[in-house]
Amino acid sequence: MMHAHRFYIDGEWVEPCVSKTLEVIDPSTEQPAGTIALGSAADVQRAITAARGAFASFSQTSKTERIDLLKRIVDILKRRNDELGDVISREMGAPLAMARAEQAGIGATHFEQTIKAIETFAFDYMQGSTRIVHEPIGVVAMISPWNWPINQIACKVAPALATGCTMVLKPSEIAPFSAVVFAEIMDEAGVPKGVFNLVQGDGPTVGTALASHPDVDMVSFTGSTRAGIAVAQAAAPTVKRVHQELGGKSPNIILPSADFAAAVSAGVRRCFGNSGQTCTAPTRMLVPAERMEEAGLIAAREAAALVVGPPSDPRTDLGPVASGAQFDKIQTLIERGIAEGAELVAGGPGRPSHLNSGYYVRPTVFARVTNQMTIAREEIFGPVLSIIGYDSEEEAIAIANDSPYGLAAYIQGDPQEARALAGRLRAGTVRLNSCAWDSAAPFGGYKQSGNGREYGKFGLHEFSETKSIVGFLDE
Question: Is residue 320's pLDDT more than 70?
């Protein structure tokens, strides 16, 4: 890629301060897909200086100016959608059709939803004689993951631009090329110099430098809970806002009133989508205990029907997982599930037999899992499903909430019953009966799944400070 060895700082593609590169591996072949430059603290300083310098003017732009900018970005995202999808497929292994339609396409969706939100968002209003003002928070450091790279970039950048913030983005070094294309789109759209900056690099070097920098007003981080803790610790001495969307271990309660076969089948597909590399994946399926055997048979059949293969093959349902480290972690946890006594009903250790290279994982289903087993406690982030039995509705709720995470939860069954139970689940999002995704709904977690909310008007609040001007009107 033309700009892979440069950073986008202050409206220009610039050479790194230190010459250091990293090989990016194509997970479908385990061979190099290219290299990127790795940033240093000096590169971070340049980017933050540019963002700080641009804030004074960009924060004063009108809502109309910012909407026009967002619309230009949407147009270019749509025009370059397939190119963006091709890059994502190569860097993190998503099947090509899915990478274009979902992985890349979701970027324009977030920008369009932000445009809708800002059009009606009240940046200032009167409360009695006091004027309430929502102002941009300032310079934002954005640290984004590899599993849905453009999704997490777009749902940070769009509200930041909409509110008048300036920013420095550090994408994942595992899937960095899509961020290069995104920066090219920002440049083509005419984002003012210094407003959007891109520095590639690893967490310990670039991530820590961003999170700890005194001129950064906010860190928006998406990734593992472990890394989120490290970011919060680095940010703490400067008392900046830290927004975190972290791990998940989402329960999927299938009630006795559900269409059982359809609910189990849909739960398997949702769990295994994106090769299981989705933080909201319903990885704990809760079924009535007396139907455990039936659930295992249905889930095993559904898993066996999924085609695991190269992302370029149109028949492929699941591509590889994104890295060798991720592959090894998943294999270790599958082995742990077997060792702790869960019933393996589909998949298991190793690659699918027809593949001899690439980070491909067999779609794996465990039945008769208890909620204290490792595979029910830890976020596996691969195509591994745990089926847990319950004897009563109360027990199902207790099992669902018995997790350090609280990002998402799912309920399948009679709509009235499902609605009644939704309020008892400790999760930021509860999805009922395989409903469609809502790009305007607030997204974020309880407990160790993070804090703060993204998407739509909720993202606008996240990137804003609230000021009260008391006595604005004479009584």
Answer: yes
Structure tokens at 373: 């087993």
Q: Which two tokens stand for residue 218?
A: 């906010």
Residues 73 and 153: beta-carbon distance below 8 Å: no
Label residue 1 by pLDDT band (50, 70, 90).
Answer: confident
395: exposed, middle or buried (C-beta count within 10 Å: 0-12, 13-18, 19+)? Answer: middle
Please, which residues have CB within 8 angstroms of residue 99's CB and are 6 or more apart in sequence?
A: 85, 86, 88, 89, 311
Q: What end-to-end distance do the CA atoms of the chain give, in Å? A: 62
Alpha-carbon dihedral angle through residues 381, 220, 157, 439, given to the nearest 10 degrees: 50
What backbone phi and psi angles, to 5 degrees, belong to 276? 80, 5
Strand stretches in 383-433, DSSP E: 384-390, 405-406, 408-412, 429-432
In 3D, which of 91, 107, 92, 405 has the Cα closest to residue 228? 405
Structure tokens at 463: 């990137």
pLDDT of 475: 60
Q: Tokens 């974020």 map to which residue? A: 444
Residue whose C-alpha is closest to residue 49's, from 203, 207, 178, 168 = 168
Q: Tell me how far apart the alpha carbons of residues 248 and 406 are, in angstroms, rounded to a whole number.
A: 6
Which residues participate in catalysis according to the annotation? 245, 279
Strand 429-432 and strand 464-469: the pairing is unpaired
For 289, the 3-state DSSP assignment is helix
User: Judging by beta carbons within 10 Å of its beta carbon (0-12, 13-18, 19+), is residue 3 exposed, middle or buried?
Assistant: middle
Token digits for 439? 């790009």
pLDDT digits (tens, 9 = 90+) for 98-155: 999 999 999 999 999 999 999 999 999 999 999 999 999 999 999 999 999 999 999 9
Is residue 382 within 8 Å of 406, Cβ to Cβ? no
CB 212 within 8 A of CB 234: yes
Of the candidates 86, 100, 107, the residue with the CA atom closest to the CA atom of residue 28: 86
Is 325 exposed, middle or buried (CB count within 10 Å of its CB: 0-12, 13-18, 19+)?
Answer: exposed
How far is 400 from 154, CA to CA, in rounded Å? 31
For the record, the structure tokens of 146 come out as 């590899």
Tell me the pLDDT tens digit for each residue of 424-449.
999 999 999 989 999 999 999 999 99
DSSP annotation of 317 reads S
- In this prediction the pTM is 0.97
**Helix, strand, coil % (nearest 5) of the chain?**
45, 20, 35
